[in-house]
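Good morning C.,

I know you're traveling, so I'll keep this short. The sequence:
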Amino acid sequence: MHCFTFDIETVPDVEAGRQILELDGLSDEDVATAMSFKRQQAVGHDFLPLHQHRIVAISATFRTADSFRVWSLGDESSDEAELVQRFFDGIERYTPDLVSWNGGGFDLPVLHYRALKHGIRAPRYWEHGESDRDFKWNNYLSRYHWRHVDLMDVLANFNNRAFAKLDEIAVMLGFPGKLGMSGAKVWDKFLEGKIDEIRNYCETDVLNTWLVFLRFEYMRGNLDDTDLKREYELVRETLKRMACAHLDEFLAAWPEPANG
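The tokens, ready to paste straight into the viewer:
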């Protein structure tokens, strides 16, 4: 079993914005403001089109037959190309099942555009069954296949009117949810050079996603009571061993059941 839960954090691609809007000479902050303003004028909100996002963090959990880990790809000095390369290298090496929250609507399309920009090859990810027949009816790209489970999409029965926020579902299920940070703050943290805080936030988001996925697997009948308790305990023990402040905060916000 190789199950890879992932989440990305992005900032405006001011390099592209500067070229598209012909804003030579403006600072990155001013270019980002102009990009948001133009978007607001065009569609009534300032959320940039996906090809104008630049990835600054990718975090993941990885569950194998006998281990669990959570980490952020690369390090604080890694550029975008390295982060994206590492993501697709992991798929190339392990062919894992992918789990996300809105990965089909956001994370993966952004990864596609950034891989295209940086000339990154990902043949295993793009396999449709031409070279491996196992992928014909179960690949990463089909919305209705299981090699990538977009929990937001699946739980809403593929109905965008039923979409929910990860934070609200996590809290509803007794998990920590967001802890003093949100995607809206990523750009400000980036301008302040606080990549470490962005990576930490991304790791807690991906942990919430993994815990929701475990409950989903329990609902589907793929885990029983004993299995679910064992998976929760594996996550807790892993985070305790890592002894990181943001993970300790996550644990503190996720109390163990009274009966252990």
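Safe travels,
E.
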